[in-house]
Amino acid sequence: MPVWEEQTSRYNAPDPRPDYYRNLPSYYNNDPYQQQQIAALWQNDENVRQIDWQHLYDVNRASFETIRNADGISGNTVSGRRSRYIVEERVTNTKRFNMNMVYNTKIGEHFDFSAGASMQNQINNYYKKVNDLLGGEFYVDLNQFAERDFPLNPSANQNNLNRPNGILHEGDRFGYDYDIHIQRVATWVQGV
Questions:
Q1: d(CA 27, CA 100)
Q2: pTM metric for this prediction
Q3: Are 189 and 115 within 8 A, CB to CB?
Q4: Do 99 and 116 meet the contact criterion of CB atoms below 8 Å apart?
Q5: Residues 97-128 pLDDT 10s
Q6: What is the full DSSP assignment across the chain?
């Protein structure tokens, strides 16, 4: 059964989380007046402590953009409302098979013999999925942090080098999508 968590994701847009460090009073230690103003807002205005969803929708609806060579296809152009903010799911899908065997026997009057074996085979699939475009028409599968950290490498910001400038819609997987295989076998014996 899949396990997932949802969160907002963004590209070239301010972090919308109220508890992002730049939105907290402690970020303004060098400006006591501003620190006091922000602390008062946090204490008195419930909206400051919530994500402003309407703002995210407004930003996405106003973000008209053209993506060239979309999906890695030369000459493929996609135009429309590019989401700067989305809601993503981080999914872990586990498939597990376990088997255990135990053998017990009595050898003579005073000796019990037991032996056993166990086997586990498990595959964990980890991936991210676009859950909601928040008023936009598409999202582009780019890594803004790699773009910032490796500005001289034009491919560094591509999450998928096999599909550069990947155009994403609700339900599409993006970012990472990989499996971890676990196999474990154990045996034991006991004589009493």
A1: 55
A2: 0.80
A3: yes
A4: no
A5: 999 999 999 998 899 999 999 999 999 999 99
A6: --EEEEEEEESSS----TTSGGGSGGGGTT-HHHHHHHHHHHHH-GGGGS--HHHHHHHHHT-EEEETTGGG-TT--EEEEB-SEEEEEEEEEEEEEEEEEEEEEEETTTEEEEEEEEEEEEEEEEEEEEEE-TT-SBEE-B-HHHHHH-TT-TTTTBS-TTSTT-EE-TT-EEEEEEEEEEEEEEEEEEE-
